[in-house]
Amino acid sequence: MIIATAGHVDHGKTLLVKALTGVDTDRLPEEKNRGMTIDLGFAYLPVESSETIGFVDVPGHERFVHNMLAGVAGIDFALFIVAVDDGPMPQTREHLAILDLLGIRHGAVALTKTDRVAASRVQEVRNELAALFSRTTLAGSAVFPVSAVTGDGIDDLKAHLLNAARSWRPKATAGNFRLAIDRCFSIPGAGLIVTGTAVAGSVSAGERMRVLQAGLEVRARTIHAQNARSETGRAGQRCAINLAGSGLKQELIERGDWVVTGDVPAPVQKFDARLRILEGEMRPLANWTPVHVHLGAAEVTGRVATLQGASIAPGASGLVQLVLDRPIGALCGDGLILRDQSAQRTIGGGRIIDIFPPVRGRAKPERLAYLAAMENDDAPTALSCLLDTAPSGLNLTRFAQSRNLTARESAQMFTGASAKSVATPSGALGFSPANWNRLKAAILESLALLHGRAPSVILNQEGLLLEAGLRLPKEVAFALAAELTKEGAIAREPSGVRLRTHVAQLTLADAVLWKKAEPLLIENILRPPSLHELASALRMDPKNTESFLVRASRLGLVVRVAENRFFPPAGLRRHATFAEEIAATKGGLVTAATLRDRAGIGRGLAIEVLEYFDRIKFTRRIGDEHQVLRPARAALGDG
Ligand SMILES: Nc1nc2c(ncn2[C@@H]2O[C@H](COP(=O)(O)OP(=O)(O)O)[C@@H](O)[C@H]2O)c(=O)[nH]1
Ligand SMILES: [Mg+2]
C-alpha cells in the first residue's frame, strides 16, 4: 500500500511521517534551510506479516502543488493532515479537491498540533472538516487527533494505518506494466535508477522495458519494490528499477516519463476526457482555455477544447479534448488534473476516455456516441457497445492498446464478445456478429441486384464492397468472400465472384459465337488453340475474336493466360492439379519440363501456364522452378 500525505504547508505532514516511520523525508539542503518540503519525500513502514507501507510525503506550499500532483499519481491511500491551530487553509481545500477529482477513496485524517490547543478547538476543526469532506470521495475517513511533538494519538493512528495495510487488497496486475517516473538518478557502480509508482501490470528482473518519452529500449536489471530487493515489481508498489541499455543517460529521462513493458502506445499529444470543473471556480471553463495538465507524474501545458457547448460551468462536467504542447504517455482511464495558465489554482480534473481521437470531427454526434461507449469502465461492456455502434468495424488493436490489455487479455476479450476480427495494415478490425451478418447480407443483396441488372458482369472480390456501397479495407472483402464461399452462397472463380445460383449470360450474338468457339476450346482442354488459331478456325478477324474472348472471360467462361491464349477454366484446373502432383514428389517444385511431360503439352505452353500460376500466386518462381504456394482449389476455385 502506498500512502501519500496531503494538506497545507506547515501543518505537520513531514513531522508526522517522521513520528510514524522514523524517517525525515525532507532530504534536500534547501528543504533543511527553509524548514519546508519542496519536492517529494519517501519513507517506509514495515508491517508484520504483510507488505511494507510506502509513504510519499508531499509539499503543502502553494508554489509546489505541481510536485504534490506528481506524488499522488497512482497512490492508494491519503493521509490528510490539518493543524488544529490553523484549521482548514487554502491548500487544505485544494489538496482535498485534487484527491477527490482523482477519485482516491481511501484515507485517514490526522488533526495535528493538538498540544497547542484546547480540546474544544479540536472538536471545532473536526466539525469543519466533516462538512468539507462530506461531498468528496474521502467522506467518512477516520479522524485522529495527534501531536507529533508529545506523541499523543500517534499509536492509534499508526495502528489504524497498519490495519488498513494488512487488509489492503493488492491491485490487480492485469495489463502491461506502467510506472510513472518521479525520480531518475545514477548510483556509482549500479548505474541508472528510476523510481516511481507502478500503476498497472507487473515486471520481472531481466525483462525488456521501454522508457516511453525518451524512446529508449531498456532492461530491468534489478528491482526494489516497497524498499526491498524483489524479483518483481507490480501495480500498487513504489519501485526503484535499475535500468540497463545502450544510450541510457540520466539527462534523457525526467519526471513525468513512463517506463513500460509490452504494447503500451507511444506518447500522445491529444486525447479526449471527461472533465469536472470545481464548484468554487468563478467562471465557466471556456473552449480553448490554456491550462497546465497534470497526468501521472507529468506536467504539460496545452489547451482544452470543449466538445459539448462552448463552456463547462463550475460544478458541472463535460467531454473535452486536451490538445497538448508536447506528447506525454497517457492511457484510457488515467486521471488528470487541470490548473490555470499561471499554475496558481486547480480548475478541475477527470479521466481520459480515448487517446486516439480522429484528425477531424472531434465533436460530431457519432464521435460523441463513440466516447459514451468508450467511457464505460468495464472493458468488455465498452467493447460490446463499441462493436454494436461500429458497422464499419472497430479498430481492435487500438482498443486493446488504449485499455492497456496484453495480447492474451485482448484475445480472450474479443473471443468473449464473439467479435469477427480481420487483420488489416492499420490493425485488426472487429465486427459484432450482427454487424458482420449485415455486411454479408448487404453483399449478397447488391450482388443479386447486379446480376439482375447486368448478368454478364463479374466482380472481383474488392468490387464486392464497392458494389454494396461499403467503404472498407480490401481485407474485409476477402474475409467476407471466403466466408460466403464456405457457406455456399457465392462462388469464387479466377475471373471473379458470383452468386452460386447465378449463371452468367452472354448477349445473344455472343452466345451464338460461343456455341461455335466452345467446342474448339475444349476439344483439347489441356492445349486450347491460340487466339490466332481460334480466329482462323472461326473465320473471324483476330481483333474481334479477342474482344469476344475478353467478354467471355468476364463471365468466367475463359481465362486469359497469355497475350495470345485463352483457357477454359477446367483446363487450368487440370494443369494446377498436375502441378500439385508433381510438387508433391519434387519437394514442392514444378518446372516447365515436368509439367510438359505430365500434361503432354509443348514447353512454350507449359511456360505460359506456369507464368499465369505465378501471377495468381498459386506458384512462385524461384530461378527456373516454381514453388507451389497453396492448394490448387484455393487458387483456382473448384468450378
Ligand atoms: N507543536 C507541534 N508542532 C508541530 C507538530 N507537528 C509539526 N509541528 C511543527 O510544525 C512545523 C511544520 O511541520 P512540518 O512537518 O514541516 O509541516 P509540513 O509543511 O506539513 O510538512 C515544524 O516546525 C514542526 O516542528 C505538532 O504536532 N505539534
Ligand atoms: Mg513537509
Write up this protein:
By secondary structure, this protein is an alpha+beta fold. It folds into six domains: 2-167, Rossmann fold (3-Layer(aba) Sandwich), CATH 3.40.50; 178-260, Elongation Factor Tu (Ef-tu), domain 3 (Beta Barrel); 269-354, Translation factors (Elongation Factor Tu (Ef-tu), domain 3), CATH 2.40.30; 376-431, Arc Repressor Mutant, subunit A, CATH 1.10.10; 435-499, Arc Repressor Mutant, subunit A, CATH 1.10.10; 508-636, Winged helix-like DNA-binding domain superfamily/Winged helix DNA-binding domain (Arc Repressor Mutant, subunit A, Orthogonal Bundle). It has a six-stranded mixed β-sheet with strand order 2-3-1-4-5-6, sandwiched between helices. A hairpin with a 2-residue loop joins strand 18 and strand 19 (298-306). Helix 3 (65-72) runs parallel beside helix 4 (90-101), helix 15 packs across helix 16 and helix 18 packs across helix 19. It is elongated and about 120 Å long. The two termini are 67 Å apart. Magnesium ion (MG) is lined by residues 13-14, 37, 57.
Furnish the topology, listing elements before pairings:
Layout: E1 2-6, H1 13-21, H2 29-34, E2 41-47, E3 50-57, H3 65-72, E4 77-83, H4 90-101, E5 106-112, H5 119-133, E6 142-145, H6 154-166, E7 178-187, E8 191-200, E9 202-204, E10 208-211, E11 216-225, E12 228-230, E13 232-234, E14 238-244, E15 258-260, E16 268-277, E17 285-286, E18 289-295, E19 298-306, E20 311-312, E21 317-328, E22 335-339, E23 346-354, H7 365-374, H8 379-388, E24 394-395, H9 396-402, H10 407-416, E25 420-424, E26 427-431, H11 433-453, H12 461-467, H13 474-486, E27 490-493, E28 496-499, H14 508-523, H15 531-538, H16 542-554, E29 559-562, E30 565-567, H17 569-585, E31 589-590, H18 592-599, H19 603-615, E32 619-622, E33 625-628, H20 632-636
Parallel strand pairs: 1-3, 1-4, 4-5, 5-6
Antiparallel strand pairs: 2-3, 7-8, 7-15, 8-14, 9-13, 10-11, 10-15, 11-12, 11-14, 16-21, 16-23, 17-20, 18-19, 18-22, 19-21, 22-23, 24-26, 25-26, 27-28, 29-30, 31-33, 32-33
Bound molecules: guanosine-5'-diphosphate and magnesium ion.
